Amino acid sequence: MMPETAPEFYRIQKLPPYVFAVINEMRAKARAAQIDVIDLGMGNPDGATPRVVVNKLVEAARNARNHRYSQSRGIPRLREEIVKRYQQNYGVALDPDKEAIVTIGAKDALAHLLFAVVGPGDVVASPNPAYPIHQYGVIMAEGQACMLPMPDAPTFLGRLEDLYRGGVKPKLLLISFPHNPTTTCVDLEFMREIVRLARQHGTLVVHDFAYADLGFDGYRPPSILQVEGAKEVAVEIFSMSKSYNMAGWRVGFCLGNARVIAALARIKSYLDYGVFQPIQIASIIALRECEEEPAKICAAYQKRRDALVDGLKRAGWPVEKPRGTMFLWAPLPERFRAMGSLEFSKLLLEKALVAVSPGIGFGPLGEGYVRFALVENEQRIRQATRAIGQFLKE
Ligand SMILES: Cc1ncc(COP(=O)(O)O)c(C=O)c1O
After folding, report:
1. Residue whose CA is closest, atom 2 of ligand 1?
2. Which of 67, 118, 203, 374 has fewest C-beta within 10 Å?
C-alpha cells in the first residue's frame, strides 16, 4: 500500500485520495484469495494492439538511431499522419507544424495544457461528473473549477449560457463528448453552439475526444474542429488509447488553435523529450494501415453493451443503452439509493463479485450512479449480470 500523503505539501493537500482506490484494494484482496472478481471498474481496454503496430515497434526498437531523445512536439511524420486522418475523417485541414502536437496520451495533453494556459483564479467551466483530471488539472494549475451539472447536453448548454448571462467569463471551457462517465453524446449542432458562445465571449475551448471512434448504432461522434471558425478558439485532444487499443503506449495529440498548441509546446519543451521514438514510428503505422481497426473495436464494445444492458434488465435493474463510449452509467437501484455509490459498489463486489466504479469518484454530481466499463468479454459480462440478479433478489 502507498503511504499516506504528507499534508505539508502544498499541491498534494488539494488532491484527495482516489475514491477508486477503495474498490481496487478490495478487488486485489479478493483476487489474492483466489476469488474470481469480474472487473468492470477501470476503463482499461482489454483488447490487443494491432499486430502490424507491435511488429513495427519491435523493428524500430532494434535500430539504435531510435534510442536517442526524440522531439517533445513529436516527429514530423507522425504529426503529418494525424493531420491526414483529420482531413479524411472530418474534412478538417490542419498545419502539422503549427496546429498539431504529439502528447504522452490525452492525460499529458490535458494536464500540461491546463498548466500552460490557466493562471491563478482563472475560471474553467466543465460538465460534472467528469473524468478526474478535468477537475483536478484545473486545481493543480490553481484555476477555479466551475462545475456545471450535466444530466444531458441541453441542460449543460443552458447552464453555460446562464453563467455568461450572470457575468462570469470562463477563461476556458473543458468538454468531452462522447462523455466519460455519463456517456452523453452530442451532434455537430451542439459543437456549433459551443464555438459560437466561445467566440462571442473570448473563451478558449478544449475538447477531449478520447472516445472519438466509439459511437454505437451508426452514430458518428463529431469533431469540434468540423465547426467553421473552431480553430480560432478551440483545440481537440485525440488519443490512440481507445481507438487502436493502445492505452499502455501513451500516445495522443492536441490539434487546432495555434496559440494554444504553441503554449503547450513551450511547456513540454521544458518537461519531456517526447514519446520513445519506436512508439511514435509504430503509431504512424496504426494511423496509416489500421483504418478498419477503430470500427472493429467499436463493434466489440457495442456487443458488450447489449449483453450488459439486456442482462441488467433481466436482473431487475433497468438501464438505458448508451450511444457511445465504453461505459454504462447506471442509476443505483431504487432501494439502494440512500446508501450512496461507494457503499453500493463495495456491496456489489462483496456479494456479486463484480467491480464497478462508484459515481462519487467522478465528482459530487456523480453520486447516485455507478459506472460499468465494458472491459470483459460478453460471456463474463453475462456471468456478472447473473450474479447481480442473484444479489438483487436476496
Ligand atoms: C475522458 C478521458 N480523457 C482521457 C483519458 C485518458 O486517455 P489517454 O490514455 O490518452 O491518456 C480517458 C481515459 O479513460 C478518458 O476517459
Report:
1. 210
2. 67
